[in-house]
Here is the input.
Amino acid sequence: MKKIGILGTGDVGNRIATRLVALGYEVKMGSRTANNEKAVEWAKQNGEKASTGTFTDVADFGDIIFNCTKGEITLSVFEQAGLEKFSGKIIVDITMPLDLAKGFPFSLLPQYSNTTSLSEEIQKLMPDAKVTKSLNIVNNELMANGEKAPANATMLLAGNDAGAKEEVKTILTQFGWKDILDLGGIQAARGMESFSSMWAYVYQATQNANFTITINR
Here is the structure.
């Protein structure tokens, strides 16, 4: 099985990494420092297939990299890790470029609104990487546990590299997602990231974070 790196030590990274280890993957969780307390604790709880390191260590380790960092620092994280290290690798970007300073309901950071997206900017920063967008349309509890979602729930996917998307689809299926809709090139990430506003208003109205969308077709 391919080795997987996780950039970020928050709830999203933890849930994704934990499920990947349970599926049998070797997983390395990375942060700015090699001894990050959250990462070290995660590794202790998840056995021999779980390890930790710096962002650079993760870039060296992973065949597939999940970006679980905060949107406002994402580009700087890749630069810190070493842009050349991601050449030819699959990057699964699940991050939302949210302007958290404005509070709830969320809005996007203006530099990632309308005419571009965070995923597109990652792709521009590393032209030889295979950037895909997925999982960002649901709460982190459901991302790696699609079996908890309704059977007809739809997971979206976008990216320029067809082979990379097929590999990501395999992982999404392992995560329990049955209906996966490919939206095409990475530009479709604009719509996927914009969904954060709708997500926030639906949550506000229902007080339920674990909802999904279904595309009837």
